[in-house]
Specification:
InterPro entries: Zincin_1, Zincin_1_sf. The chain is an alpha+beta fold. The chain contains five helices and three strands.
Length: 117
């Protein structure tokens, strides 16, 4: 059974989970927006989140006028793997940490080593 939550309620959970993250993780985020979309462009349920930007470790010059990086959470794929709201909160939390890590230049291999992927 798939958990059902409308977009507004889902976004409220994302905001709550963002507020729970350690300050040292989020204070360094610069010019990043968090976005909730129903599904990835390909329509699949395989991708839970995406970091769309240039990692901090790969930036040359970055300044005024740059479009913000985006951290996207996909509502339907996240809902499809959670049976309860607590499970959903856990998955949102893990996905946020995972995508924020990409902002800081931590790749999937290192995330696996750390237990976050």
């Amino acid at each position: 059974m798939t958990l059902e939550l409308d977009a507004e309620a889902f976004e409220a959970l994302v905001t709550d989970e963002l507020d729970q993250l350690p300050d040292e993780m989020v204070d360094g985020l610069d010019n990043v927006v968090f976005v909730v979309e129903d599904r990835p462009e390909d329509g699949s349920l395989d991708l839970l989140g995406l970091y769309d930007g240039v990692a901090l470790t790969e930036r040359d010059s970055y300044g005024f006028g740059e479009m913000p990086d985006r951290i996207i959470l996909y509502r339907e794929p996240l809902l499809s793997i959670a049976a309860t709201e607590d499970e959903l909160r856990d998955e949102i939390h893990i996905t946020l940490v995972h995508e924020i890590a990409h902002y800081y230049g931590i790749d999937d291999e290192r995330l696996h080593e750390l237990g976050w992927a």
